[in-house]
Amino acid sequence: MQLLLEQLLNGFQLGVTLLLMASGLTLVFGIMQLINLAHGSLFMIGAFVGATVMAMTGAFLTALAAGVVAAGIAGMVLERLVLRRLYQRDHLDQVLATFGMILFFNEAVQIIWGRRPLGMDLPESLAGTVALTADVDYPAFRLAVIATGIVVTIGLYWLVMRTRLGMWIRAGASDREMIQALGININLLYTLVFGIGACLAGLAGVMAAPFMAVESGMGENILILTFVVIVIGGIGSIRGAVAGALLIGISDTLGRV
Q: Using CA atoms, how far apart are residues 99 and 96, in angstroms rounded to an integer?
């Protein structure tokens, strides 16, 4: 029972990481009808910037904020300069263009940070364990990842379903021409949506950095699982992303054990 509980929580933590990735990606695909293979690169940028700032300052919250902001800025610049030209193009064109951006970002991080993988230390306040039962002590940082993912997902659902911005986002997904006729700047709206998705990917990258080597190409493996989550949960559905992410995270973890 002790091993089962620990691995279920590990699977839940992986599922939350996938959920942060899938939430942004399913928003972009569901609203913009854009296949973005470079989403994993934004995860990588968040991890690299977060690890670098953590090494320089030792402040995890500062590193977390830096990683999220860097990924968000990179995502909005990517949308503005490259992806905006692909909205009306065939999905094959989108796949080829965003695959090219994967190569670009992988080479860019090697030029900036070098080929040697980086590591990211745990914050001192979360480096210990929490006693869940008399026999089970679980890492505090993994519990923090789970809690962060739950809070962010609830916030994202509230943003999309309960705010004016969310109403515009859902309307833009249904009828782009009509929302433009109502005076909404659809290009700015799409940039904001893509920026939100990029920030979520950056957040996932920083939270995952202590568990994995921060290196060029690290976003590709998690991107594959993210697309599986979206296929299971349904394109454009946040609730579906929750179900798919937890299913894949727990199944993958228990299957490996």
A: 5
Using CA atoms, how far apart are residues 108 and 74, in angstroms rounded to an integer? 12
Q: Which two tokens stand for residue 221?
A: 């493996």
As a whole number of Å, the CA-based R_g of the chain is 18
Interhelix angle 2-32/164-174, rounded to 10 degrees, is 60
Answer for the pair 199, 72: CB distance below 8 angstroms, yes or no.
Answer: yes
- Per-position b or e across 36-71, b if 16+ CB within 10 A of its CB: bbbbbbbbbbbbbbbbbbbeeeeebeebbbbbbebb
Give the DSSP per-residue string, 15-31.
HHHHHHHHHHHHHHHHH
The Cα–Cα gap between 129 and 250 comes to 21
- H/E stretch holding 227 reads helix 219-233
Q: Average pLDDT by consecutive 10-residue portion of the chain (257 residues)?
A: 82 91 82 85 96 92 96 94 87 91 95 92 84 81 90 88 82 75 83 91 93 91 90 82 91 88
Q: What are the angstrom distances between the C-alpha of 173 and each of 14, 108, 110?
A: 29, 33, 37
Nearest to 171 by CA among 157, 189, 154, 156: 189
Note the pLDDT of residue 89: 86
90 exposure class (CB count in 10 Å sphere: 0-12, 13-18, 19+): exposed
Q: Look-up: residue for tokens 């690169």?
A: 41
Taking each continuous run of H as one helix and of E as one strand, the counts in the chain are: 10, 2
Instruction: Give residue 53's pLDDT.
Output: 95
Question: In angstroms, rounded to a whole number, what is the distance separating the alpha carbons of residues 205 and 224?
Answer: 15
